[in-house]
Amino acid sequence: xxxxxxxxxxxxxxxxxxxxxxxxxxxxxxxxxxxxxxxxxxxxxxxxxxxxxxxxxxxxxxxxxxxxxxxxxxxxxxxxxxxxxxxxxxxxxxxxxxxxxxxxxxxxxxxxxxxxxxxxxxxxxxxxxxxxxxxxxxxxxxxxxxxxxxxxxxxxxxxxxxxxxxxxxxxxxxxxxxxxxxxxxxxxxxxxxxxxxxxxxxxxxxxxxxxxxxxxxxxxxxxxxxxxxxxxxxxxxxxxxxxxxxxxxxxxx
Length: 253
Hints:
Radius of gyration: 22 Å
Shape: elongated
Order of helices and strands: EHEHEHEHEHHHHHHHH
Strand order of the largest sheet: 2-1-3-4-5
Number of helices: 12
């Protein structure tokens, strides 16, 4: 049986994870449930679970530190980070540590099932391959890139209003090389980081236009365009109509 550790300081999520799945159906059993990071690390050291679901925000020791300690000790446990959307800007720290997967709260039964199956499959592949390096070549790295790309998007969503926002700033904030970040995001999402930034800015502009409370120049400032004329030009190129035409058709009264 695959032995599972659940670590989350919120009782509702611990109970949800325990009861929402028939763990035995997937060849798993829960070996421990804990509510703080120190207890999670103690269980990993003493009980040696195969997979650990670790919440990022926990008392005594946060999930990132737990994962860091596990990787420092080279323990063969699969690490699945559990995080809320408002915490994901910190989750890219876990990329460098080497986590195996992540779950975003609130997650569904299907999302938890997928994470469990992926972890179990990874363990089976590791055993069959007999090599962590070979396992990484069988697709394990894909999850790392997905996490990194999501973290990039979270950073863009939090900072799109800055006119000076550049790819270099994103790279510096996340602690990666500019060129590496570009390649990872393009490979994962099929568009560039700056294209995604413009997409976010246009989407936010639509929301402001629909409110009917802002002029085009104000919206241009709010969403990070340095020039209102350029904003209008790009908006029309992306949406097929001008900001004013969009407002007339979509204002919410």
